[in-house]
Amino acid sequence: MGSCKTCCQNIPTRYIIMAMIFFTTFINYTTRTNMSVSLPAMVLSGTTSQVAECETDEVKSSTNTTTKSKSEEVTGTKYEWNQAVQGLILGAYFYGYLMCSLPGGLVAEWVGPYLTIILATALSGVLNSLGVWLTSLHWGALFGTRFFIGACGAFIYPALQCVVGRWAPPQERSKFLACLMGNNLGTCWTWMVGGIVTQYYKWPWGFHVMSFQIVIFCIVFGLLMFDSPEQHPWITDEELKYIKESQEGTVSRTKSIPPYKAIFKSFAFWTLCVLHFGNLWGLYVQITAVPKFMKEYIGFDIKNSGILSSLPHLVRVFMGLGFGFLGDYLKRQFRRILIIKSFIVLSHIIPGILLGIIGLAKCNTTVVVTLLTLSMSINGATVVTNLAIPTDLSPNFAGTIFGIISFIGGTTGFIVPSVTGALITKFGNNSIAWRTVFALGGIMYCSCGLFFILFGTADIQPWNEKRRTEEES
Questions:
Q1: What is the pLDDT of residues 368-386, one digit of tens each?
Q2: What is the rounded distance in angstroms from the CA atom of residue 85 to the CA atom of residue 132?
C-alpha cells in the first residue's frame, strides 16, 4: 500500500480519477454488449438466409437454393429461440437501463459515486455469470438477469457525472468527460475477446471472462477511487487547493434533495434535453439501423467483420480524447458557451449531414463504412457539448440532470428501431425506406443541435445551490 501511495503521489490524483472514469465505462460496456456476441453461439442457426436487395441475381439464385446452413460450430448448448425471443433477450438490458435512469443520479448524490459504481458493477458481474446457469431453466431467466444488469448499468453514468462535478476543475472538465469514451474501447474489446473465447472455449466462458474482468476492476477501483478530493488520502495539499479554488464554491458535499421542480421549469435544462435527445437518436441510427441496412439491403454483415465493425468505435475513442483536450484549451481562451456552441457543429451538425447521405451510397460498402466512421468519430465532440453541459449547469446535481436526460433520450433506443421497421413495412426493404431512415436521423441530429445553438446556455443555474442541507458525510 505504501508503494502504491508513493506512485500515486508522483501523478496528479485527478489524473488517476480520469483513468478510473475511463475504465468504469470500459467495463460497463463489456457487460452491455457481450450479449450480442454470445447470443449467435447460443441459438440454432436457421436453414435459410434473407436475400439482400443489392446482391446480384447470381448470388440471389445460389442463396435461394440453399436449404441447409453450415454445420454448427461446437460452441456450447444450443437453444431453439425464435427471432422474437432473441429480440427480447437483446433488448432486456435497455428495458432495465431505462427504468433506473431517473433515480440513478439521486442515488449517486446521496450514497456517493464510489459506492454506487462499485456496487452496481459488482452486482452486474454476479448477474452476468449467474445468467449462464439460469439459461438452461428458461429463456425468461436470462431475460431477467439481462434486465437487472441493465438496471445496474443505469446508475453508472449519472454517478460518473457526480465524479466529474466533484473532481474536475472547470477548465479541465472536457478532459474528464473525454474519458467516457472508454465505452467505445470496451465495445471493441468485447467483440474481439468475447468472440475468441466463445469460439475456443464455448459461450459460457464468454460470460465468465467478462465477470472476471469486473473482479479485477472492482479491486483496483476500490483502492484508487474516492468520492471527493477532500476524502482522498494521497492527494497533495497543492492539488487539493487548486481544485477547490478553481471550483469557486460551486460544489458542495452536503446532501440535498434535487430541486426537481426548478429543474423541470428551467428552459436551460430543456435545451440540454433536446440536444441530448437528438444525439442519441443519431447514435441509435448509427448503431442499430446502419448494420441492418448493410446486412439486409447491401448484403454485407459488418458485425462479422472485426476490423470494419470496430473502426468507428476505435476512431471515436481517439477523437473524443482529442476533442476533450482541445475543448479545455479553447475554453481558457474564449467564452465557454461560444466554444460549446461551436463544437455542436462537430458533435451534431456534421455527423447529421454525414448520416443523412448514407442512404445515397446505395450498394457501395466502402462509402457506407467511410461515412459511418466519420460520423461516429466526429460525434466524439459530445465530450465538450451535451456530456459536459450537465456539470456546467449544476455541478451539485449533474448526476440527477444526466439521469433525467438519459431517461428521456433513452426512449430513442425504442423509437428508432420502431420507426425503421415501420418505414420498411410501408415502402419495403428498398432505397426509399432507407433514405428516409437516414434523412430523418440526420434531421434530428441537426435540428436539435441548431435548437441549442439558438437558445441554449451553459451558465451555472440558481438551483445549483443546495438549500436543504444535512450533516456532511
A1: 889 989 999 999 999 999 9
A2: 17
